[in-house]
Amino acid sequence: MIDTAISAPYVKPAGRGQNLRFYGMWVVAAISLVVLPLVFSSGGSITSFSLIGIAIVFALSYNILLGQTGLLSFGHAVYYGLGGFLAIHMMNLIVAHKWPIPLPFIPLIGGFGGLAFAVVIGWVVTKRAGTVFAMISLGIGELVGSSSLILRSVFGGESGITTDRTSLPHMFGWSFGPQIQVYYLISFWLMVSAILMYALTRTPVGRMCNAVRDNPERVEFIGYDPHVVRYLACCFAGFFAGIAGGLAAVNFEIANSAYLGAVQSGMVLFATFIGGTAQFFGPILGAILVTYLQLGLANVTTVWQLYFGIIFIGIVMFAPRGIAGLVMLHRPLIRAGTLGMMIPSYLLSLLPTLALVCGGVLAIETAARYTQSEGEGKVVHLFGMPFDSTSLTTWAIAAALIVGGFLVARITWRRVAEAWDRATTAARDRGCLA
Amino acid sequence: MLELIVISTLNGVLFGMLLFLLSSGLTVIFSMMGVLNFAHASFYMLGAFFGYQLTRWIGFWPALVLAPLLVGAVGMAVERYGLRNTHKHGHVAELLLTFGLAFAIEEIVSMIWGKSPVDYRVPAALDFPAFSLFSTNYPAYKIFMLAVSASIFVALLVVLKRTRVGLIVQAALTHPNMVSHLGHNVGRVFMLVFGVGSALAGMAGVIAGPALVTQSDMAGLLGPILFVVIVFGGLGSLPGAFIASLVIGLVQTFGVALNGSLASAFGPLDPSLGPSVLTDIWNVTIAQIAPILPYLLLVLMLIVRPMGLLGTRET
Question: Could you list the residue range(s) of the whole structural domain that residue A78 is in?
Answer without folding.
Answer: 16-321
